[in-house]
Amino acid sequence: MNWVSAVTLPVRVGLAVAESAVGVAESAVATTRMALAAGASGSLDAITLANPRSGPLQLLGQLAELTSDDRALGHALRPGGPLDRLLEPGGAVDRLTSKGGTLDRLLEPGGPLERILADDGPLTRVLAEDGALDRLLAEGGLLDRLTAVDGPIERLTAKDGPVELLTKEGGVIEALTRENGVIDNALAKGGLVETLLGEEGAIQRLTARNGPLDQLVTVAESLSSLAPNLERMSVSVEILQDTVDVLAAAVNPLGELVGKLPSRWVKSRGAVEPKTGEVRGALQGPAVGR
User: Fold this and answer.
1) Interior CA angle at 198 toward 194 and 200, to 5°?
2) Which residues, including other chains, have CB under 8 Å from residue 197's CB and lie 6 or more apart?
3) How far apart are CA 63 and CA 60, in angstroms?
4) Which of 42-51, 55-64, 86-95, 98-107 has the lowest mean pLDDT?
5) What does the alpha-carbon distance between residue 247 and residue 47 come to, in Å, rounded to a whole number?
6) DSSP code of 249?
7) Residue 272 forms beta bridges with which residues?
8) Are 181 and 175 in contact (CB under 8 A)?
């Protein structure tokens, strides 16, 4: 429930500081009472008062030192300081604890906290046997693998490892963030970012009406419309192939028939005209009366 702790952190800090302030005040009151009681009984002499180790003056000195402006407690307790801002009307503590405030919404019936803590809620599933936490902390689990010798974390943080290369002097991060570095140059006037995103920049031209992207979409639509035509053409090609097969089957018997004719017929009737190159009566029958 880290997020609940984060939400209530200002309240807890304010209460802790207030408790410290009350403790200091109690010490001061106790010291004053001791001094008054000792003075009334006559048992407190000048030497006891001035004792630098165990006398009331020593306690008062410690109190003054703790609440001085250059110490954390004094800084927190000063007028307009962190404690004042936390506890002022309408401040962080007031907003958290007011009716209908953050704490009220967290703790209301059916609210986030109740849903988290409910049976079969997120927290129950995380903490269940063989749940996420068990798998994370199991032997050989994710945490073991991350923190193993020569594991990911060790490799990342090793000398000359990725983290050192990124963060060392003159490394990648310094090269990116230094003055006149990659980021400065990219963000400079006329730089890469302005070239890409500026008016009439590359991205604007790319996405403009009738620009390259529009033309690509048009080409894609044209290509998609070609698909049915290609399918129809493939059907036509198949039909043509079948026709060629039928013609080939019809021509083969003719070739066999020509092969069965007497060779003298083929030679005499198949003479080629010298001028025209035409075949004379190769397939004509014998002349009548011969």
Assistant:
1) 130
2) 203, 204
3) 5
4) 42-51
5) 136
6) H
7) 279
8) yes
β partners of residue 279: 272
Per 3-state DSSP, the chain is made up of helix, strand and coil in percentages (nearest 5) of 70, 0, 30
Q: What is the DSSP string of 196-243?
A: HHSTT-HHHHHHSTTSHHHHHHHHHHHHHHHHHHHHHHHHHHHHHHHH
For residue 262, the 8-state DSSP code is -
Which residues 6+ apart lie within 8 Å of 121 measured at CB?
115
pTM (2 d.p.): 0.32
Residue 260, both tokens: 């069965």
The tokens describing 133, both together, are 């936490």
Torsion of CA 119, 123, 127, 129, to 10 degrees: 40
Q: According to the model, what pLDDT value does residue 144 have? A: 92
Q: What's the number of CA atoms in the CB half-sphere (13 Å) around residue 228? A: 3
- Which residue is listed with tokens 């090269």? 175
- From residue 227, how far is each of 78, 143, 231, 234, 281 by CA, in Å? 80, 54, 6, 11, 51
